[in-house]
Specification:
This protein is mostly helical. It has 6 helices and no strands. The termini are far apart.
């Protein structure tokens, strides 16, 4: 978590920067009573990670409805990672590294026990989709002579 805390967004890995923006946008749209999946779909499609959106939405919903505490997200224009965003980035980073036990420990601080397993699974799927995206882009790129 501490490696992400107060870090400028432009110094994050592209995927993590995108996910912070998506978290902020999900929160803003949801609080406004609109469908977050519909609002986020174009951005996820542009990044080539549309398959991650349902799991991202499920995890965000679990944090929102079954959270142990209220999570705070920065405004869309905030330039640095705040405390709760840093915790979620540590969770996602653990999943991206295949560190399931670490991801589970972090998630256990965020959601209630009934939501824990499915939240970790959703985050693992998000991580997998983001890790696969560069491969799909590379594999789908035109071959150079």
């Amino acid at each position: 978590m501490y490696r992400f805390l107060d870090r400028p967004l432009d110094q994050l890995d592209e995927h993590l920067h995108f996910l912070v923006s998506a978290m902020r946008h999900w929160t803003l749209v949801t609080r406004g009573g609109r469908c977050a999946c519909r609002a986020l779909a174009p951005a996820f499609a542009w990044r080539g990670v549309s398959a991650a959106l349902p799991d991202f939405a499920a995890a965000m919903g679990a944090f929102d409805r079954e959270g142990k505490r209220w999570l705070r997200f920065g405004t869309a224009t905030a330039r640095t990672v705040n405390d709760d965003e840093a915790v979620l980035l540590a969770l996602i980073d653990s999943a991206m590294r295949g560190e399931r036990n670490a991801a589970r420990r972090i998630a256990a601080t965020l959601v209630t026990e009934p939501a824990l397993g499915r939240t970790v699974t959703a985050i693992e799927w998000v991580a997998l989709r983001f890790l696969q995206a560069p491969l799909a882009q590379r594999d789908g790129a035109p071959k150079q002579a």
